[in-house]
Amino acid sequence: MSTTIGRSVRPTSPTSPSAVGTGPPPEPGTSGVPDRAGPLPAGALRAVGRLLTAVATRTVALLALLLVWEMAPRLDLVDRVFLPPFSEVALAWWELLIGGQLWSHTSASLVRSGAGFGLAVLLAVPLGLLIGRYRPLADLLNPLLEVFRNTAALALLPVFVLLLGIGETSKISIVLFACTWPILLNTISAVRTVDPTLLRLARSMDLSPPALFRKVVLPASIPTIFTGIRLAGAVAILVLVAAEMVGARAGLGYLINSSQLNFAIPRMYAGIITISAIGLLVNHLLLTVERRLTAGRPDERG
Amino acid sequence: MTARIELRGVTKRFALRGRRPLRTRDARGRGPRPDHTVTALDTVDLTVADGEFLVVVGPSGCGKSTLLDLVGGLTTPTEGEILLNGAPVTGPGTDRGIVFQQYALLPWRTALGNIEFGLETTGLPRRERAARARDHLDLVGLTGFGDRHPHELSGGMKQRVAIARSLAAGPDVLLMDEPFAALDAQTREGLQEELLRIHRRTGRTIVFITHGIDEAVLLGDRVVVLTHRPGRIKEIVPVELDREGTDAASLRSDPEFTRLTHRIRELLHDEVALARAREREELAA
Q1: What residues does the ABC transporter domain cover (chain B) (predicted)?
Q2: Which of residues 3-32 of A touch B (CB under 8 A)?
Q3: Which one of A47, B13, B166, B167 has the fewest beta carbons within 10 angstroms of its own beta carbon?
């Protein structure tokens, strides 16, 4: 607990509206936006300045990447056939969107990864709580867990295909498999690392084991469990895309792979962009849920 | 005054796992001999009167915390017995409240929620729990801070919440394990006065463990000085200071206060020297 001493409230993100007039003085270069001074109070003006700076800071690297992407093929720095300018990729993406293919591929991928991920959460969290709580079970299963978590899930893809075919079952199963480990291991370690003073307190109060679990162990574990869930979210997409490149007829992985084989290079990039957008979105979503769940406490993972 | 807590010939030994055997002397001073257990407490006899404020001091590793765990029912004695209100202690219970050095507050609960947590094993109805939690928040001087989470409170405030939580459950005995050790000097002095006030107001029996000699004399009705491993009672120093109507500052300048701290410092000095010598011996062995 000593690490939390002296911490004040959670720092508000730079884009948060609550930062109005409470933050430190503005950085040089953002305070003077005189053309829009008008009736706005100075605090609000400064907040707007900070917001603009924050947005600019966050997007400038991205914009630079897109600019390089656009210009490099046009200036013949790279082969235009293999890396078309970003505008062509955007156009291809738009056509896929209008044609409805983008949605059908995306929804196919989301259903698979969502199913595998959801099942992994339902399976791994209770299992992890159990293993973390009962040491004999942990001692028994630990060697097995070590073997599985050090085996790349994709190395097992052929096995899954052999056993479960090339249909949905094998794809959902491999996502389930890959997502299980980060959630399981984080849950186990969450339960194991509950502040021992809290356990001593609970024991001194003669709390019954179910009450101890519900009132102390579970709430104390949630932040670490959620870190595992967030890792699994990224893994779900990663593994699925690879799985879809083998024997699928729909999905973003299939779109990317088949576009490459058919030499529809802009479409291939459109698929890649969609995947990174989904990855970002999922991570953001899980982060939001995590913040909601752990509201009112400091970031304990330091 | 009736006896609230009685320790009769209490000995506590721990098994040493995966460590070199320590050389210890047995009760009659024979030895040193190799031993695979370490004796934390050795035949301790002690009676704590109802409403007494008893302070325990000793060099580190003398079994102070073990003593508290035993009374709290978190461990059982190897030999001897511990009586609480005349009945043997068999395990933890809400008749004893423990205050830990590291506060042990649930970070996801508010100050009030943490105090209520201490009441949830008592079977009180929810409405009554809330009312009692609020009363105890007021008692420790944190009125208006009930909705704060622990990370929004200072160390001193956190310890106040922990004290309130322990008191709210209505224990006969308050067990405090170096509760102010992690606080800065100013906050500590404030809390010491507060604790004396609470003790006067509630008449609760308190067993208080500390490293601080000043703290011991300031707070205790009696100060128990323990020896270095194995922990035995070296001496019990009665503190006869008139605390009514005087503040801590004038108590500290009382000649009797100086005499008592000097006495305890002398008693501890030998033990600390012994502890150092023994550590060197063990390192060399």
Answers
A1: 22-253
A2: 4-5, 7-9
A3: B13
